[in-house]
Write a structure and sequence with these properties.
Blueprint (H helix, E strand, L loop, with lengths): L11 H4 L3 H18 L2 H12 L3 H12 L5 H8 L7 H16 L7 H19 L2 H8 L4 H30 L8 H14 L21 H25 L1 H7 L4 H29 L1 H19 L7 H12 L2 H12 L4 H30 L1 H12 L2 H6 L9 H8 L1
Helix pairs in contact: 2-6, 2-8, 2-9, 2-10, 3-12, 4-7, 4-17, 5-17, 6-7, 6-10, 8-9, 9-13, 9-16, 11-17, 11-18, 12-13, 13-14, 13-15, 13-16, 14-15, 14-16, 14-18, 16-17, 17-18
């Protein structure tokens, strides 16, 4: 049972927040997620080109999430001293960029599904071991480390739609392959930056699957409920927002920009939420954010014109910021099996998101996206009672936080 309770670093070196090592991983997350953010704003073009229903479009993103089932296996390997997975992290931006770049050459729906499946494998290879590395080199400021990590991802997802829409405007969907060179250049830079960092440096002892079993009911069951209820809200606004805006009369450019506004606000939320949870606790932070997310989605559906901008900013801020807190929560609970636990959580997160996307697509086809968005807001409130059942996580005192920051 020792692996399921929080253990704190015992030496000054282990407690220190190693910014110089955190930043290379953070930058890799930004680069990688910039490319994966191309999918949502380009989805309307794929729907039009291949005459897809919303259910078929949702199925495409489900294929993108399907490889997440191997996340626990990747995490277990990352927790094994004899295996180093740093090259997965290093080359993921290049591989993902290449696969996204050839999206315009897909000839039918089957080739699209295969392409999305391969992209999903690249995404899984990056996201399973990276947070565990961040947790170790963040010392006692795991929340801050996860905030920086997730903020970089949100920033990438903010920049991505703008880059995608601009590239399509300049070269068409078939011409976005020109952007692939940036991904490869980034991977070469990461290879140089990561030469002194191993993905197994975080280990104190080998990972152990059995160490996770006692926490399945007390920790992962409420976490599953939180993740599932939250998935309906986040999947609706991050995947179908451009499609929803376009159905409401917006241009493709405006639809893509609306997603960038949402993701941009999510960067600020992600930067703050993890650090705040270090001070006030994971559970109170999650309760506030999840309740506010549902409220702001309902408000978004009520406003129009210039009011959309401030509401999108608030919606993005509260709805996208719980992820660093959830990641920190997982890392807190399994300090000796971090990558394995993170792989299990990421797999669970991606799979329930795929499930949510399928239902959202079907709901959009039957009742329309507006009604489906309303339903997502109310479903997300199911996370509140689940959060209350989570085990309590100790937080740093004000003095400890100030000491770490100095």
């Amino acid at each position: 049972m020792t692996s399921t309770r929080l253990t704190t670093p015992t030496t000054k070196e282990e407690s220190r927040f190693k910014l110089g090592q955190v930043l290379p991983i953070v930058s890799g997350h930004f680069i990688h997620d910039t490319y994966t953010a191309f999918v949502a704003p380009l989805l309307p073009l794929l729907i039009e080109r291949f005459s897809l229903s919303l259910t078929q479009a949702g199925r495409l993103t489900a294929f993108l999430q399907l490889p997440s089932i191997i996340n626990p296996f990747i995490g277990y390997l990352a927790d094994t001293p004899s295996v180093s997975l740093r090259y997965f992290i290093i080359f993921a931006p290049a591989v993902t960029a290449s696969l996204i770049g050839v999206m315009g050459f897909a000839t039918n729906y089957l080739s699209l599904t295969l392409l999305f499946l391969l992209i999903g494998i690249s995404v899984a290879a990056f996201h399973a071991p990276a947070p565990a590395m961040i947790a170790h080199i963040s010392g006692r400021r795991v929340g801050l480390g996860m905030s920086l990590f997730m903020a970089a991802g949100e920033l990438g997802r903010t920049v991505g739609p703008i880059v995608a829409v601009s590239a399509v405007a300049a070269w068409g969907l078939d011409g976005i392959y020109r952007l692939v060179v940036i991904g490869w250049a980034s991977s070469l830079l990461l290879l140089w930056r990561f030469r002194q960092v191993s993905s197994k440096d975080h280990l104190k002892k080998p990972g152990n699957w059995r160490a996770l079993l006692p926490a399945m009911r007390t920790f992962f069951l409420p976490l599953l409920i939180i993740t599932l209820s939250r998935a309906f809200l986040t999947a609706s606004i991050t995947t179908y927002l451009p499609t929803f805006m376009k159905s409401e009369g917006a241009t493709l450019a405006l639809a893509g920009i609306s997603l960038s506004i949402l993701e941009g606000a999510g960067v600020a939320g992600a930067l703050l939420s993890g650090s705040i949870s270090d001070r006030v606790g994971r559970k109170p932070t999650l309760l506030i954010l999840m309740s506010a997310s549902a409220l702001m989605l309902i408000v978004f559906l009520q406003v129009s014109d210039w009011l959309l901008v401030p509401v999108l900013l608030l919606l993005g801020f509260v709805s996208l910021s719980p992820q660093p807190v959830l990641l920190a929560l997982v890392q807190d609970r399994f300090p000796n099996n971090r990558a394995t636990a993170n792989g299990l959580y990421m797999s669970m997160s991606f799979l329930v998101r795929s499930f949510a996307l399928q239902l959202l697509g079907m709901g959009g086809d039957i009742w329309g996206l507006r009604t489906t968005f309303y339903a997502s807001a109310f479903i997300s409130l199911l996370a509140v009672p689940a959060i209350l059942t989570l085990p309590r996580v100790p937080v740093l005192s004000e003095a400890e936080v100030d000491e770490e920051q100095s």
